[in-house]
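Q: Is it fine to ask for two folds in a single conversation?
A: Yes, each is treated on its own. Send the first.
Q: Here.
A: Result:
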Amino acid sequence: MRLAARAAGVMATVVVALAGAAKAQEADSTGRYDIDDALRRHPHDIGELPTIEAARGRPVTFDLSLRGVYTTNAGTTPSDRIETGYLTPGLGVSVTPVPLMGWSVGAGAAIDGDYYNSDYDDQVGEGRLEGFVYAQRPLGSGTLTAEFVMLGVYADDFSEKDFHLAISNLTYSASLGPIDAELSAEYEHSDVPEERRTRLAALAAHTLAEPQLGYDLTIEGDLIFSDFNGGTNARRNDVTAALVLLAERELGEGLWLTWEAAFVNRFSNRERSRFTAIDLGVEISKAF
């Protein structure tokens, strides 16, 4: 009896320990959000916002895309990294901006999702629905952009909602000689307290003056500070640094081919929130 009880106690301890380890290694959605932000994958990214020139006279523009990515850390975890690939099909629609009281005002919406192989899809796959409005105006030598974004994150088949974000963002962008720079402040409110945070981001990018093998090459550095204020993440602070290389080529008739590579490292005062990742990807997109 004592031996059986002792064995049961040992088993219970092991189960609790394993459960704690599994919880510690859960995928961190904020890490993947920051990687996508550094690689300009979000539909509401300043560089992706609809413009009058890109619309070519259309009041509404649709965008179809398909991205393939290899990543060394799909779950953005400090250990037990998931090294794999995934596909991201997407469909977006944007309203051509119109002038309003000195501002250029536009809007857009998108649906996309990350689909991994069957071993990891349930763990890190996700679907996203996003809608946004924005206003831009010249300020000094640059441009001031104000955005409001509603982002819903779901299981990859959209059968279950994980959380939503209501994002308020203010960005100032300018060209300083050969360098394109951005400074932004953002607050992300969520129905899940652990997702709530303030983000401060800085970006510096340089695009080579001459195309290389038909591609426009851009080298970019990003630095993102996050201050969390909800749930178990309260008083958590992260600093994410990224080095990014982008190669873009217009194939004609609204078709674009983009290659991307990024090294991302996140420091944090919470050990479980630290990670390093390398992302390599290719995307083909068409506007019509």
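Q: Second one now.
A: Result:
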Amino acid sequence: MKVKSIIKKGIEVSNDDFYLIEPELFLELNNVKDKPDFVTVFIELSSWKGTSLRSGVWTYYEATHKDQVEAVIKYLQKYSLGEEICRMYSLGNHDYCDEKYQDVFEYPKEWIKESEIIDKWIFENEENIIAYMQEIVRKNRVYFEQLFQD
């Protein structure tokens, strides 16, 4: 599928069908150099949601650099449609890369409990997360169309 077609579908498709184009859009956007903040946030929210649904959100935070998480939080604080997505995303912001966890991976129990809360929230609010991701694509349509001129 051509990238411009993916963008068009990402804008026009219903929330229920967004999952059909999200993986392709994710892959294309991952290849973009010098990503603007909204592209990074789209990619990170897709990873956050997907990791939570597959293996648990703590693995997302474990694999994502803290600076990246903080950049997403900053964007969400400024642009999110509601405070809840930002609050939930922020809840998992811990220093998983701290040296004391690198050999044993014994994270504090409260971090794991928080990740369970986040996982439950993501499962119950997947539609809202998708709507927010789709809104990122819609609001930045011109950027995406110019970027992916086939």
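Q: Anything structural to flag on that second result?
A: Two points. The chain has one domain: 3-147. The chain is about 70% helix and 0% strand.
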